[in-house]
Design brief:
By secondary structure, the chain is mostly helical. It has a single domain, classed as Arc Repressor Mutant, subunit A (Orthogonal Bundle).
Length: 166
């Protein structure tokens, strides 16, 4: 037996919580690369796509900027700039709220809806590449575990928490 065999090795992680977090971060990074490959072809960010998707769900209505920002998957520090970029590409339009002219409402345009339709098939293929290798029971367990891990960190009034709780 060599001296190296007797030397205690440092643990790879400080705790199971740290290992879980770092594995989650690593998986997110790898899965995001696959998605970014598709969105780059459209000069679109995942946050812009998510914004368009949320606005499509509001059709035929619109959404206020604060509500839109609260429903995004990732925090948007500058929702105005995000909407500006989408508006420049004619995918969204701003409207003044008739009941309170100070409020701005955002609506998906036909061009934005058309883009989402173009992305539907390729994005389904991306999701299949990302997680399609998991059997349904493992995917459901993953969803449940991620919900359990994330829900305590969502604000009580979070749309995400309200619609994704177990």
């Amino acid at each position: 037996m060599s001296r190296d065999d007797l030397t205690p090795r440092a643990p790879r992680f400080d705790s199971p919580a740290q290992e879980g977090y770092l594995r989650l971060w690593r998986v997110y990074d790898r899965l995001k690369l696959i998605e970014e490959e598709l969105f780059a072809a459209y000069e679109l960010s995942s946050q812009q796509y998510n914004t368009l998707r949320l606005l499509r769900a509001a059709l035929p209505g619109s959404m206020g900027t604060l509500e839109l920002a609260s429903r995004l998957i990732s925090r948007a520090p500058d929702i105005t700039r995000l909407v500006n970029k989408l508006e420049e590409r004619t995918w969204v339009e701003r409207q003044r709220d008739d009941s309170d002219r100070r409020n701005i409402r955002i609506r998906l345009t036909p061009a934005g809806n058309s883009l989402l339709q173009q992305l539907a098939g390729p994005l389904a293929a991306v999701h299949e590449r990302q997680l399609g290798h998991l059997p349904a029971n493992e995917l459901n367990a993953l969803i449940a575990a991620l919900s359990a891990a994330g829900n305590p960190h969502e604000p009580d009034d979070s749309h995400w928490k309200a619609h994704h709780a177990d």
